[in-house]
# Entry
Amino acid sequence: MNGGAIKRSLENVGLRCTAQRYAVMAFLTDHKGHPTAAEIFAAVNHVDPLSSRATTYNNLRDLVKAGLVREVAVEGRAGRFDLRGLRHHHFICDRCGSVEDMEWYDVPRPRSGFLGKRVVRECQIVFRGLCTKCAPRRTSR
Amino acid sequence: MNGGAIKRSLENVGLRCTAQRYAVMAFLTDHKGHPTAAEIFAAVNHVDPLSSRATTYNNLRDLVKAGLVREVAVEGRAGRFDLRGLRHHHFICDRCGSVEDMEWYDVPRPRSGFLGKRVVRECQIVFRGLCTKCAPRRTSR
DNA sequence: AGCGTCTTTAGAGTATATCTAATTTGATAT
DNA sequence: ATATCAAATTAGATATACTCTAAAGACGCT
# Structure
């Protein structure tokens, strides 16, 4: 995603293209490894203080709400973020908490009638287990 | 799950049946609403202080590791727990964070070959959206 | 330029979870 | 029964992750 594309995608969802928001989007564009909010906060301020902690968290929340960014919750650890560009599922490592992308495929919908008044926004598959790095040494925690 | 069954299931996975563990399992048996660790801690100590915070958290972690209990991570909120008795998927409400059970159905596996050295322990579908209570009033946040 | 709104800020505050080191408990062997 | 020792528990401090507050600043519109 280049500069103009980031600006346009922000404006498409009704968010101003501020330096702070731009930096978050740019960082996620360049770093596909599902960073945590703390990592994004640190990276954005690495060179020169640009964005306070509150702003980073607020912007991540706004971007998630707007549908540009996805958050993956990980048990007992900080949530991780990625761009919602290409559809994909996630693999979460039990041992190190890292999140990896899995190729997308369609998920069967629940029986209609089950949902009732619920409004489904999205549907995700999460695989759990040991990642490529952790699988060899199966030591427990 | 009655008393004996709880004791047996603990012993099956190599955990002693202590009063504190028993209380956690019994609470989860009686309360299907996916309580948080804090709620379980409070409930177990409601009548008569029985279990410290650390023990409650340790036991929940041990029970998850042993496969008796499942944790559902929720973005920006406390994780929620349930018994791994019947297989089911989960619905998480964007607005109130509550977790509801969805009927189980099989999930297609990823293309073999994709996984590489990864070891998959489980695979879960998570639906997100607005629950029955929150759907009517669609106020933001 | 003036106006109203959206955005950002620093730092305190809250919620959640883990750690520490001493003590107690419970299963097993004697 | 009792001794033994690893497993389990404890209170409370500490760490981590996130949110709130009130004031100031920036943006887009006229």
Summary: Chain A is about 30% helix and 20% strand. Chain A has a mean pLDDT of 86. Residues 15-16, 18, 20-21, 51-55, 58-59, 76 of chain A lie near DNA strand C (CB under 10 Å from a C1'). Chain A touches chain B at residues 61, 64-65, 71, 73-76, 79, 89, 91, 94, 102-103, 105, 107-108, 110-111, 114, 116-132, 135-136, 140-141 (CB under 8 Å).
